[in-house]
Specification:
140 residues; alpha+beta; Alpha-Beta Plaits; Ribosomal Protein L9, domain 1; 2 domains; three-stranded antiparallel β-sheet; globular
Length: 140
């Protein structure tokens, strides 16, 4: 069962899918006034500005965090058709945008927002990153 949690401040809705989370703690390190896994609920949407929340969500390497602007006339609320690829030093390959991933059996999965692909070769969730690069001290 896929769980999706929603947190809103009226302007933006933060979406969290815990099953996608690789626990990189980038959200917590980058914006601890909003994202704090020691608290319940762990997302305090009122903790900072909408702009800073969006910026931090865009840094999520697993795509577990996403956002939706509540104003349908805002271009940020529309799905982006652009795709950006970023290589994180000593970490995964991040792909921002919409894409279709086909596995070795030919099964297709649609991905949006941010998708993290393994570069270290040790993930138990290939082709996706599961954070193993940290424990093996991957450099690349």
């Amino acid at each position: 069962m896929d769980i999706k949690k929603k947190y809103t401040n009226g302007e933006v809705t933060v979406l969290w899918e815990p099953q996608k989370c690789i626990h990189s703690a980038i959200c917590f390190k980058g914006l601890p006034t909003v994202f704090d896994p020691r608290k319940r609920p762990w997302v305090t949407i009122e903790g900072d500005s909408t702009e800073k929340i969006i910026q931090q969500i865009k840094a999520c390497p697993s795509g577990a965090l996403a956002y939706k602007m509540n104003d349908e006339n805002n271009p940020e609320s529309m799905t982006s058709i652009n795709t950006v690829v970023e290589v994180l030093p000593n970490g995964p390959l991040l792909v921002y945008g919409n894409l279709k991933v086909k596995d070795k059996e030919g099964n297709e999965t649609l991905k949006s927002q941010t998708t993290a692909f393994c570069r270290c070769g040790h993930s138990e969730n290939k082709p996706y990153c599961d954070g193993t690069h940290v424990s093996i001290a991957f450099e690349g």
